[in-house]
Write a structure and sequence with these properties.
Helix content: 55-70%
Strand order of the largest sheet: 1-4
Low-confidence stretches: none
Number of helices: 19
Strand content: under 5%
Order of helices and strands: HEHHHHHHHHEHEHEHHHHHHHH
Distance between the termini: 69 Å
Number of strands: 4
Structural class: mainly alpha
Radius of gyration: 25 Å
Mean pLDDT: 92
Number of domains: 2
């Protein structure tokens, strides 16, 4: 029996499989996601075409379909129109049927027309990559069999399953269901783990949803985005040019009053601001809700109420609003903290108000927070004034 051109020990085949699948993951995160879908970086034509060619071989993905579906996901996140939201469809369906959800949306011509702009439209795309998308994966099968022999069939099967499982399933499913959040953005996105290696950095999904146009997905010192490492290597060879990364919070401790610079910094870093607010009042919320629980005849779900207090009013159901209203009515401290949270979030939503008026509102907000008698709010406000 033909053993293949390459003879390896068992662990060699494992490493070869990991290398091939990792090349595919890198192509998805760098080319499809950060370059095509979000325009966070520009790629040299040579690099761009190599990524496109490899994806044709290893996945059969059509660039326009992938970019359009992902853009729609961001535009309609966690709504009925989101192609793959576990909040709407359920985590089990997205984890186990993620690929089917993708294929169904790829047939929606309205999605492709509305969200697929700016993707490759050259002769190769029209006559090869899109028209014969399955031909590439057949060629990959033949190449795997030629190189590795019969075991090549197994390697090819793993390659074909890699993106449907890890991208369509884990990122779209677990990345909106389990994990931690650095930013209080208006969706359910999470960072699955702080080390983005296995799925090319896409594990840092909450960071991405907070700053979708950033070429770098890590934001904390302990987070690692291997996709960003590859982008920096490409940039060093002039094969990539970074267009945008997420803003970094800068504090000027000498500032004692809000100005236009403060307002701009707060709006730019609004997700970080709301996350810091949630952390600041965490102990206050817990102590007050626990106190109310001891006094109440009905049982209070402390964890759920704490979660609802950190959300915008529009994100709550009518029943949840009634529960929150009853709780804050029984606690002046919770009422103050909750009301100030809603008012702070409303500042950057007022697009028709002049900047000067917004600065005045922000300064007034800080004044009321510092005179609330709540130590956590006082400290938060003092830090907020330092945004620069």
């Amino acid at each position: 029996m033909f053993a293949g051109l390459i003879d390896l020990p068992w662990w060699g085949y494992v490493l070869a499989t990991l290398a091939l699948t990792h090349a595919t993951i890198a192509s998805v995160t760098i080319y499809l996601h950060r370059h095509q879908a979000h325009r966070a970086l520009d790629l040299h034509p040579v690099a761009s075409h190599l990524f496109r060619f490899w994806l044709w071989l290893s996945t059969g993905i059509v660039t326009k379909e992938w970019a359009a579906i992902h853009r729609k996901h961001h535009a309609k996140c966690e709504t009925e129109e989101d192609p793959h939201s576990p909040v709407i469809l359920g985590i089990k369906k997205v984890l186990t049927q993620g690929y089917e959800l993708y294929r169904n949306e790829a047939k929606n011509q309205e999605t492709l027309n509305k969200y697929g702009h700016g993707t490759p439209d050259d002769w190769l795309e029209k006559n090869l990559y899109s028209k014969h998308s399955k031909t590439g994966i057949v060629l990959m099968l033949l190449a795997d069999l030629l190189l590795f022999g019969p075991i090549g069939l197994t390697i090819w099967a793993v390659q074909m399953a890699w993106i449907p499982i890890n991208a369509a399933g884990i990122i779209n499913g677990a990345g909106h269901f389990w994990g931690y959040r650095n930013y209080a953005c208006a969706d359910a996105s999470t960072n699955i783990v702080p080390w983005g290696i296995f799925i090319g950095g896409e594990e840092l999904h909450n960071n991405h949803h907070a700053y979708a146009s950033s070429a770098k997905l890590s934001s904390k010192w302990y987070e690692f985005d291997i996709g960003w490492l590859y982008i920096r290597i490409l940039a060093s060879f002039r094969l990539a040019q970074v267009k945008k990364i997420a803003p970094q919070v800068r504090l000027d401790i000498s500032k004692t009053a809000c100005d236009l610079e403060t307002l701009q910094a707060v709006i730019t870093n609004r997700y970080e601001v709301m996350t810091k607010y949630a952390l600041s009042v965490k102990k206050t919320y817990r102590a007050e809700i626990t106190r109310l629980k001891l006094q109440a005849s009905d049982k209070l779900d402390v964890a759920r109420i704490k979660h609802w207090l950190h959300l915008d009013e529009n994100d709550l159901t009518e029943q949840q609003k009634n529960t929150v209203d009853a709780v804050i009515l029984a606690s002046p401290t919770l009422h103050t903290a909750y009301t100030l949270r809603q008012e702070l979030a409303a500042i950057w939503a007022r697009s028709t108000v002049s900047k000067e008026h917004l600065v005045k509102q922000l300064e007034d907000w800080c004044h009321r927070a510092e005179n609330s008698g709540i130590e956590a709010l006082q400290k938060f406000s003092q830090r907020l004034r330092c945004y620069a």
